[in-house]
Amino acid sequence: MLQPRICLRHVQHLRTLLPYSTLRTYAEAQAIDHTPAPPITATTTVPEINPYESSVRPEDTPEPPFRLRSYKPRTPGIRHLRRPVNDHLHRGRAYLPLTFPRKGQHIGGRNNSGQIRVRHRGNGAKRRIRIIDFHRNAPGKHTVERIEYDPGRTAHIALVHNNATKEKSYIVAAQGMRAGEQVESFREGIPQQLLDALGGSTDAGMIAAKTAWRGNCLPLHMIPTGTLVHNVGLRKGGKAQLCRSAGTFAMVIGNKDGDAGMDKEGVSGAEKEDGERQEKWGKKDLYVHVRLKSGEVRRIHKDACATIGTASNSNYNRRQLGKAGRSRWLGIRPTVRGVAMNASDHPHGGGRGKSKGNVQPVSIWGQLTKGGYKTRKKRNVNRFVVTARPRHQQSASKAKKKEKKEKKKKH
Fold it and tell me: Which residues, other chains included, contact 250 with Cβ-Cβ below 8 Å and sequence gap of 6+?
C-alpha cells in the first residue's frame, strides 16, 4: 500500500515543531578499546546469607472493590455478558510440559462401553489438562512466575519454580497472590536455617509468624487457631482434597498441640511415628478440628496438609455467560424439562398443557427428587465428622414463619 505523501515545503516547518528526540538520528562510529581486562587473582569469599533473616511477610493489601466488566451491546450475545475483572492473569499459553490433551469419550459423559452415565455433557472447546501439584512435598523457596486461567477448574493457578532446582510446577493460587511472591512448603519439617534465624526457639507463635503466610503449605498442627486455609488434605502424606474450588476456605478451630508439634530437640511431629506420638499426646490429640465452608466440623489428621489463605477467583459465581452458546463452549449441553417431553420419555411428560399430573416430582428414572429417596444409612456414620452440616434450612425457615403467624393470630 502506498504511504501518504508529505509536501516538501512543510518539512522545514515540521522540524521546528517536533522535539529533537523524535527526529531520526544516525549512529556515529566510536572507538572501541579491545585491550583485555586484567585477570582477577584475589579470591573473594561470599558469606552465607540466611534467607529467613531478611524474609518479609507479603503485604495483606485490602481487597479491591468488586467490579464486573460489561460490554457495549453490539450483538445480542454480549448484551448480558458480565465478567469479573482479572487483569493480572497471564494472556499467553500454558506451560506445555505440565499439560496433556483432554481426549476420550468420557468428555461426552460416557463410560468405557459408550453408555451415557452423566447427562448434559458433550462437545465444547479443546482443552489441555494442567497437572497441579496437590502434594507440595518439595521443600525450599518457590517463586511465583505468573497467575493463569485454568479451563479445568474454577480457581486460578500459579506457575512457580524452585529457587534451588529451577523445577517448575503448578499450584492452586491463593486469593491476592501475584507474580514475584515467594511461597514455601513445610511438609517435610522446619528447615534448620529457620530455627537458626529464630535463635533456636520452638515457640509456636514465633514459628507461625515466619511460616503461616499466604500461599505456604503447612501441616495442620503448625497452623494457628482461627486461620483461613484451603487445599486441605484428609490423611497424613496425602494430597489436598478439600476447599480447592474458587473462593472456598476452611478455618482451623481446634489445635491441641501446645508448642507447634515441636519437642526439645527441634524435631517436628511429622518426623515421628504414630506409635510414639500416641504415647506422648494420646490418640485424640492426633487430630485437628477444622470447620468447612458448609458449616461441618471435621477431625483431620494433624500431619495433613493445608495452604494458608482463600482459594482465588472468589467472584466466580457472579459471572453471567450472556448466551447459550457459551455454555456449549464449556461442554455443557441443554437441559430439557420433563413436562416438555413425551410420556414415553419422562414420567412428567405427556398430557395437555404444562401439567405433570397429580404425582410427586421424580427424576427420569422414577426416583423421588425432593428428599423422598434416602441414600445415607444411619449406621454408616462418618466418625471424623464432629458436627454435621446444617440441613433442611428451607423447611426450618418455613416452620418459623408458621409459628410467627400463629402467634399473631392468637394475639
Answer: 228, 229, 230, 232, 242, 243, 290, 291, 292, 293, 306
Query: In this predicted model, what pLDDT tens digit does every residue of 397-406 receive, in sequence order?
Result: 677 777 887 8
The whole-angstrom separation of Cα 18 and Cα 261 is: 70
Three cell numbers at 197? 534465624
C-beta of residue 184 within 8 angstroms of C-beta of residue 29: no
Residue 355: pLDDT above 90?
no
DSSP per position, 156-220: -EEEEEETTT--EEEEEPBTT--TT-EEEB-TT---HHHHHHTTT---HHHHHHHH--TT-EEEG
| pTM for the predicted model, two decimal places | 0.75
The 8-class DSSP code of residue 287 comes to E
List pLDDT tens digits, range 214-230.
Answer: 999 999 999 999 999 99
pLDDT-derived band at 143 (thresholds 50, 70, 90) equals very high
DSSP result, 205-240: HHHHHHH--TT-EEEGGGSPTT-EEESEESSTT--E
Mention every residue, 6+ apart, whose C-beta is less than 8 A from residue 181. 58, 143, 144, 214, 215
